């Protein structure tokens, strides 16, 4: 059955169609023919012989089962090279609006809903002026290879612009590099500038050459047990002369240079990520996401500095001392003054003006219960008291000089009584011991 009819058939029509198919299979009726006059095999199943609904063949045919093979090389080349002609116009613009054109710009290449031009205040349909030219619409019917050709539609002229852009960037880099080297030569000492030797045949810069007047690293200490010198990398990490004063030597090993610049910051970043990983803080991995880890580390530093500044400000507001952090005079900044102050070994002022003591948050200088000194101005035998009367009871009234003398006499009398009591106890002990010895002697 090679018919592509999809119309509705009643029972009689369907029965007649089945009988005709059976007769064709038995050879009693001539087989059906396609568009080219070729016989269609009646034994082909209907799901193969019938064409899909989206292909209108107009009659019995097996053309939808055959691949369209193009043997002409010119046609093959055209299918591979064909592409959309961007920006090309079909001809000059029209002078008046045409039926079926875009209502906005007047072009016949697209509809008003697909127009890429800015919506006009008065559309071309009503104004009839400034009609846009028609764009060239290319019918790109590519085959299997043309659709999958990654270089189809490639224009080498566009890549020349990329090359020119990179050439301009490279030229600007060379100019800035030359200006930077000239500036370093002008500002730096001639003996401190590292000379570079560059091979013109290659793009790799040769290792920096040391100045021949300088002493080689391996000649600074000839002891075989001194710092190790690696001839392959030309490095000596340890200090070859550790016994020399650091202020008197000009070389302290390569590790000294490694801890300059941003090396300390990178070490701090590593410690931060390690500590955060141990605490499961969710910090990104340093090797997997270095930029994100550095951003998190900077945010952490800013927050920590903000917290420290806030705590420092709260402490200064609570206890004072801001005047000691800011130098108000150049003389104070230089540490020079005409004021003479004499101190003892423990830091007390003997002569001169004693610096003001910081004020705490507790009430100070409050005299209570007729005392002339504050509580805590007197200390003796592990107890605090008042210096005016030597009272060690917190809520005791002041007795003045008389009370202090009476207290001293009472303490002296108490000490004398304790001494006499101890002497009597010793006398009694000695008497008991002598009587015991006399009793033990034989009569």
From TrEMBL:
Region (Disordered): 1-44, 411-443
Record-stated family: Belongs to the SLU7 family.
Swiss-Prot/TrEMBL keywords: Coiled coil, mRNA processing, mRNA splicing, Nucleus, Spliceosome
InterPro entries given in the database record: Slu7_dom, Splicing_factor_SLU7
The protein's name in its UniProt record: Pre-mRNA-splicing factor SLU7
Function: Involved in pre-mRNA splicing.
Compositional bias of kind Polar residues: 415-435
Keyword Coiled coil appears in the UniProt entry: yes
